[in-house]
Amino acid sequence: MTRMHSLEWQKSSFSEANNNCVEVRGADGVIELRESDEGDVIVRTSAAKFAAFLQGAKAGEFDHLTTSA
């Protein structure tokens, strides 16, 4: 896996334009996530854990969380 080296926050191209999104950045094996409207609350995780999460997301394991009941 290629290491992500970015001090700039990045958001998905699928995010809304009104800063209603989750942003990510990383360097040296540490990934940081935050919500654009609460920029001072940052969650940190390892690159390996983030990669496992992304694999699950791509496989649809979390799709039930994005649909309304």
Write a brief caption for the model.
The chain contains one helix and four strands.
Distance between the termini: 36 Å
Helix/strand-derived category reads alpha+beta
What order do the strands of the largest sheet run in, or round the barrel if closed? 1-2-3-4
- Estimate the helix proportion, in percent: 10-25%
Helix and strand sequence: EEEEH
Q: Specify the biggest β-sheet.
A: 4 strands, antiparallel
- Uncertain residue ranges: none
Q: What general form does the structure show?
A: globular
According to DSSP, the number of beta strands is: 4
Strand content: 35-45%
Mean model confidence by pLDDT: 86
Radius of gyration: 13 Å
Q: Count of helical segments?
A: 1
Give a written overview of the molecule.
By secondary structure, the chain is of the alpha+beta class. It contains one helix and four strands. It has one helix at 47-58, and strands spanning 6-11, 22-27, 30-35, 38-46. Strands 1-2-3-4 form a four-stranded antiparallel beta sheet. β3 (30-35) and β4 (38-46) form a beta hairpin. The model has no long low-confidence stretch (mean pLDDT 86).
